[in-house]
Design goal:
Layout (H helix, E strand, L loop, with lengths): L18 H11 L4 H8 L3 H9 L6 H10 L4 H10 L17 H13 L5 E4 L5 E4 L2 H6 L13 H6 L11 H19 L2 H11 L27 E5 L2 E11 L6 H4 L2 E7 L2 H15 L1
Length: 283
């Protein structure tokens, strides 16, 4: 795995405009020298240098090869193609677009099949897009303004008037979410995510009902391997672990940026409580 550029957490001074600007920006973000990139892209260092400085124009094939080697997000790949004088290749249709009906149905099916455990789908800015029946039950009690669309999952989770007071291991979970957000910023350079991280860092750390107390631990937990989500409910503290799933080979920008967060019970008591919650939705 390539290391990421730490300065990527800051705002860009100016967005890239020419193809060479795009190439230089992402090459430096991925910490490639011109020689390294030329090697993996199977072009000469001299030609790559000429393309980056604007003395030569890339072919469409070369543009696609470079964005692939640099793991450029689909949204940015369109900008590269346009800057090089070619038509955009990837579409960005809203999930509610009729042409996205099959993809939308597939996501909904995954979420529903995950019941009685909670599952949700988010866009690239952590806005809630879809969810199964368990999610609203866990969101209940948050301030109404935090539940107005689009609901931002991170803001809802960490805001003192959101779910934060009910998260038993708030400080631990907060740092876990911050690290995930930092990784996403390093990968995409998204200014909206940079602003979101700064906002979240301003929220108080000790709003959990167990703030200052020893954090609960899952049997067999290994720091850095398994991160528990411990959540107060009328049925007791739910012990959950989560996984994140993305589409493997999307050709649509919306689908590439969609993430499915699925939670699993980490003990029998949590499984029983979640089954009880599911039964209440059918009553």
């Amino acid at each position: 795995m390539r290391s990421m550029d730490t300065p990527a957490l800051s705002h860009r001074s100016a967005p890239p405009t020419s193809f060479g600007d795009h190439l230089r920006h992402w090459r430096q973000r991925r910490r490639f020298s011109q020689m390294d990139l030329a090697h993996v892209a199977e072009v000469s260092t001299r030609h790559l240098s000429c393309v980056e400085t604007g003395r030569a124009s890339p072919s469409r094939e070369m543009v696609l090869r470079l964005v692939e080697r640099l793991d450029v997000p689909l949204r940015e790949r369109n900008a590269w193609l346009v800057a090089a004088g070619f038509a955009p290749m990837y579409r960005a249709r809203p999930l509610q677009d009729p042409e996205m009906a099959s993809a939308r149905a597939a996501v909904q099916r995954i979420l529903e099949c995950h019941e009685p455990w909670p599952a949700l789908a988010m866009d690239r800015h952590w806005n809630l897009v879809m969810h199964n029946r368990l999610v609203p039950l866990l969101m209940a009690g948050a301030a109404p303004e935090l539940l107005q669309g689009p609901v931002n999952v991170l803001r809802l989770s960490l805001h003192p008037q959101g779910l934060a007071p009910r998260i038993a291991n708030l400080r631990q979970w907060r740092e876990h979410l911050f690290e995930r957000l930092r990784q996403q910023i390093r990968a995409t350079g998204d200014a909206v995510l940079v602003a979101l991280l700064e906002e979240l860092k301003g929220y108080p750390e000790g709003t959990s009902a167990t703030a200052g107390a020893q954090q609960l631990a899952l049997p067999g937990e290994h720091p850095g391997v398994l991160m528990p989500f411990q959540f107060h409910t009328p049925h007791g503290v739910l012990q959950l672990v989560s996984t994140t799933t993305v589409f493997g080979s999307p050709v649509d920008i919306t689908l590439q940026e969609l993430a499915l967060e699925t939670f699993f019970p980490a003990d029998d008591a949590t499984a029983t409580a979640l089954r009880g919650l599911q039964a209440s939705t059918a009553a």
